[in-house]
Amino acid sequence: MSETVSLNKFIEEFELEKIYETKDIDSVMITTADINRPGLQLAGFYDYFDPHRVQIMGKVEFTFLEQFSTDDREERLERFFRNDFPCLVITRSLQIFPEMMDLAEKYNKNLLRVDQGTSEFMSSGVVFLNRELAPRRTRHGVLVDVYGEGILIMGESGVGKSEAAIELVKRGHRLVADDAVEIRRISDNHLVGSSPEIIRHFVEVRGIGIIDVKEIFGIGAVMDSGDIDMIIHLEPWSDQKSYDRLGMVDEYTNIMGINVPSLTIPVKLGRNLAVIIEVAAMNNRQKKMGYNAAVELNNRLMHQMEEQLGL
User: If you ran DSSP here, which 8-state letter would residue 148 be given?
Assistant: First the structure.
């Protein structure tokens, strides 16, 4: 099912002025992140016109319309208003043409206005809609921002995900989500996670119960959303399993078609998970900057062997 965002949420986000509001505005949904400036349409070219997009007009479109007589301008605008677009936003707080008001009422179109420049508003609108309309999945886990790296901690219930998150928050890092993480794919290589609003900033700690991280640790200890740069799988330690000790082979977890670097960390009494996760976050950042400690050690060993063999 395709994602949608309500027109009311779009209006609230950008504090748009309602010049004409339709009776069904509460049910109007935006289904595409693309925004259109209908300059070609006002000139009469409607091939490939997508009526599902938010429409915006600025100084250029208004200057073009001002050169026509009232009747010609109304004819061009009427052909445009016949299309089933969700809304028309006028930028720069421009004075609305009387014909626009009449046609908005005639064809039941939401007419809005903002004081931002056209290019600025268009750019901000596309970013907002891309985020809101991005494909999304919900995963069981904990998302924490550690040194600017978004770490998604996953594992079976009771393995210690929330406890590790609390320890990380105590060490100055920030909680994004606990228990349920809503993941959105906002580009071909970018995942963003957030918490469902009803449980945002709450953490369940076995033996204590529900705690409000924002109230206990302060506003600086939480984030509403954050990138997902790495996944750490926690699992109970098993003596029968062999764990990676060098890190020469990079592992990935695929989420919505994006391969995210991942690690499997065994949980054992006495291991400080918070410190391990901190080191993993810093190591992941180093790899993104082009430095891999395992590769560096291997190169040194190979160089030493070559010297000993006289190669």
Answer: T
Q: Is 140 among the residues known to form the active site? A: yes
Catalytic residue among 37, 53, 109, 161: 161
Residue by residue, pLDDT tens for the chain (311 residues) are 568 999 999 999 999 999 999 999 999 999 999 999 999 999 999 999 999 999 999 999 999 999 999 999 999 999 999 999 999 999 999 999 999 999 999 999 999 999 999 999 999 999 999 988 988 899 999 999 999 999 999 998 888 899 999 999 999 999 999 999 999 998 888 999 999 999 999 998 888 999 999 999 999 999 999 999 999 999 988 877 777 666 677 889 999 999 999 999 888 877 889 999 999 999 999 888 888 777 788 788 888 888 787 66
Active site residue 184: no
Distance in angstroms (rounded) separating the CA atoms of residues 154 and 71:
64
161 is a catalytic site residue: yes
Q: Which of 131, 28, 39 is nearest to 87 (CA)?
A: 28
- 69, 91 contact by CB (below 8 A): no
Q: pTM of the prediction? A: 0.75
Quote the CA–CA distance of 182 and 131 in Å, as a whole number. 12
Q: Which member of 23, 71, 188, 245 is catalytic? A: 245
User: Which one of 92, 179, 190, 214 is the catalytic residue?
Assistant: 179
